[in-house]
Amino acid sequence: MGLIPKTGRGSCKVRMLHFSMFLVLTLGAVSMLAPFVLMLSGATRTGVDKHEFSFLPRFLWDDAALYRKHVEALHNESAATLRAAWRSEHADFSGVELLSSVDAAEVARWETHLADWPGAVLPGYAATPDSRSRPLNVRGFARHLKSEISREIEQVNTALETDFADWNAFWVIPPDTRSRLNLTPDTPWWRAWEHYVNEAAPEWTLGTHDLTGFFIERVWVPRHGREDGSPLLVATLPENEREAEAWLLFVREVVHPDFLRISDQASDDWQRLLQARHVNMQTLRRATGVDADDWTELALPTRWREAGPFQADWEVFLQGWKDPEDVLHRVSGAHLTLDSADLSWQRAHGTPPPIREAGQLKFERHRREIRRAFLTQHFSTVWEILIVDGRGLGNTVFYCAMAVLLALIVNPLAAYALSRFRPPNAYALLLFLLLTMAFPPMVTQIPVFLMLRDFGLLNTFWALLLPGMAHGYSIFLLKGFFDSLPRDLYESAALDGAGEIRMFWMITFSLSKPILAVIALGAFVSAYTNFMFALLICQDERMWTLMVWLYQLQQSYGPGVMNAAFVLAALPTLLVFLLAQNQIMRGIVIPVEK
Question: What is the spatial distance between Cα 487 and Cα 182, in angstroms, rounded to a whole number?
C-alpha cells in the first residue's frame, strides 16, 4: 500500500512533491554520471590539453584545438622539433594557431619539389614522451608487420633480427633522421620501418625536414642566442667568420651525413686518411673486405650511403682524426656541401619553403581522419594491449563465468541442505560460515597462497576459483530465502516420487531466481574486481585478468590511456546490471516483503 492514497494524488501539493522527488533523483543520477563522463573526456587528452577540465573535448568542434593536438603529434610532442620545423620560438604547443590564409599554388609547387627528395620525410605520430600513449604509427607499424610477415611475434623476431617478448613489448623509438646521433644501421628492422613510413603510414602523419630551422635550433641559438637574428643556412662554407664557424660545427658534428656531399677534390686527403688508419692493404682487406693493390685505387665516396664498408672511415674523415704522430686528417670545409629539399628550394626560389603552410593544407584535407584518430587512439591502445595482443579479456571472461557458475552450484546446495533437512547444529554452522567474514582478505591471502603453492596450483584458474567457491554470507542469505518457500510443495513433490535433486532443481531453483540473481551478481563483481589476490597467485602475464592489466598499465602509460582503460573496464559491470536489473530488484525486495 502506498504512503499517499489514490484519492489525494491529484492535488497540486502531491504533484509538486512527486516532481521534486523525480528532480532530486534525476540530479543524483546526473551527479553519478558526471565522473564517468569526465573520465570519458579524459580518455581523449594528450599533452597540449591534458590540463583542460570539461565534459566534452574541445577539439570535437574547435578546429584550432584539433590543429594544436595534430601539430603536437606531428612533431612527436617535442617543442624543439616544432621550433626547428617552423623556424619559430614556441616554448610549447599551446601557442600554435591556424594561419589566416595559405597560398595553395605555392604549396603545390613545394609538394611537387618534395617528390624528388624521399629522404625529407620526418615521421610524426611516432613518439609520445608527454602523454605516454602508444603512438598511431607504432600501432600501424605493428599491424603492417602482422600482415606482411606474421601475427606470431617469434616469426617477426626471426625475420627482422629482433627479440621482442610479445606484441605488448613491441615498440619503436623513431630516429631523428636530421641528427648525427641517430645513424641507424642497415638492418632488416630499420629497413622495415623505412618501408612502412614511405609506403604505408598515413600521409597526414608525416612532416618535412627543414635544415635551416634545425641549424638555428641546435647550433646558432645555443651559441649566439636569438637577439641578433638568425642567418639562413647555405649549402657551402659561408664567408662570414662567425657563420662559417657555426656552419662547420653543424656539418661536422650535428647534421646527419645523408645531407652532406664531399667533393672529389678531397680524394688525396681521403687516401692519406685510409693509409694512416689501416696502415697496410692486408689490414684494410680484413676490416672492409675490399681487395685493392694500391691506395690510389680507393676512390672517395661523395655520399655517406655510397661508402659501404667505408662508412666509418667517411664519418672519421668528416669529423677529423689524429694519427699516432698527431697529424690531423680531416676533409676541408671548402670541399663540403649541404644538400637537402629545403636548401634546394631556397636556392631556386630565394624564400624559405612553405612547410607550415603545406602542413596546414594537409590538416584541412584530413581533418575528419585526424579528429577520429584523437577520439579513438587511447581506446585503440587499450583494446590492442588487453584484447588483440594480450589475454586479459579472455582470462577475465572465463574466470567470471566459472566463478558465477560455481557460486550458483556450491552456495545453493549448502543452503538447501541447511534449509531442507534442518540439522540440529544448523545455526552453529551458519555462525561458523559468517565468522569467515570477520577476517579481511589481506589476512587470509598469505595462508591461501602458501596452500595453493604447496598444491602446485599457482598461475592456474583453479587457484583463482577454489578459494572463493563458497561464501558464508551467500549461504546465509540463501538459507533465509529457502526457509520462506512453502513446505507443502516439497511434500507434494515427495509424494509424486520426486528425488531431492529434482526438487532442488524444479522447486527451489525455479522459485529463487531473484535471490540467485543477487548471488550471481555478487560473484561476478567479486571475480571481476579481484586484483590483489589475482596478482599474488597469478604472476604469469598469460594469466593476468583485466584488473591486473590495469595496474600494470599505470606503470607505462599516461592518464589518457588509463582513463580509456577505466571506461572500457566499467562497461561490463554496467551491461550486466542493465541486463539483470529486474531480477536484482526482485531479489532485494522480495526477501524484505517475506
Answer: 82
CA-closest candidate to residue 145, choices 172, 173, 183: 172
Return mean pLDDT, the chain. Answer: 85
Q: Do 339 and 277 have their domain in common? A: yes
Whether the per-residue pLDDT at 66 is higher than 90: the answer is: yes
Does the pLDDT at position 578 exceed 80? no
Looking at the structure, tell me whether residues 547 and 526 fall in a common domain: yes
Strands (E), 72-156: 121-123
Residue carrying C-alpha cell 582470462: 395
* Rounded mean pLDDT, 191-216: 90
**Three-state secondary structure call for residue 553:** helix
Amino acid identity, position 244: A
47, part of any domain: no
Q: Are 119 and 177 in contact (CB under 8 A)?
A: yes
Per the DSSP assignment, residues forming a β-bridge with 329 are 321
Does the residue 51 lie in any domain? no
Q: What is the pLDDT of residues 91-135, one digit of tens each?
A: 889 889 999 888 999 999 998 998 888 777 889 999 999 888 999
How long a stretch of residues is the chain? 594
What are the φ/ψ torsions at residue 9 (nearest 5 degrees)? -75, -10
- Residue 593: predicted pLDDT: 45
Question: Which residues face 277 on adjacent strands?
Answer: none
Lowest-pLDDT choice from 121-135, 268-282, 322-336, 575-589: 575-589
Tell me: do 406 and 373 sit in the same domain.
Answer: no
Domain count, the chain: 4
Residues 332 and 479 in one domain: no
pTM recorded for the entire structure: 0.84
The kind and range of the H/E element at 206 are strand 206-208
* 3-state secondary structure at position 122: strand
Integer Cα distance of 9 and 571 in angstroms: 39
Return the pLDDT at 515.
Answer: 83
Assess whether pLDDT exceeds 50 at residue 576: yes
Instruction: Say if CB 528 and CB 547 are below 8 A apart.
Output: yes
pLDDT tens track for 35-51: 888 888 888 999 888 88
CA dihedral over 437, 439, 442, 446, signed as positive or negative: negative
Range 114-121, long-range pairs (CB < 8 A, 24+ positions): 114/208, 114/341, 116/341, 117/340, 117/341, 117/344, 118/198, 119/177, 119/209, 119/258, 119/341, 120/208, 120/209, 120/340, 120/341, 120/342, 121/197, 121/198, 121/206, 121/207, 121/208, 121/209
* Lowest-pLDDT choice from 153-167, 424-438, 463-477: 424-438
In sequence order, the β-bridge partners of residue 460 are none
Q: Is residue 541 domain-resident?
A: yes
Alpha-helix residue ranges (DSSP H) falling in 196-288: 211-215, 221-224, 241-249, 267-278, 281-288
Q: Give φ, ψ of 234 to 5 degrees.
A: -115, 165
Question: What would you measure as the largest C-alpha separation in the chain, in angstroms?
Answer: 117
Same domain, 115 and 190: yes
Which DSSP category does 250 fall into?
I
Of 320, 349, 378, the last residue of a domain is 349
Distance CA 547, CA 531 (A): 5
Mean pLDDT of the region 248-262: 91
Range of the domain at 325: 212-349
Residue 171 belongs to a domain: yes
CB 144 within 8 A of CB 136: no
Query: 3-state DSSP call for residue 261?
Result: strand
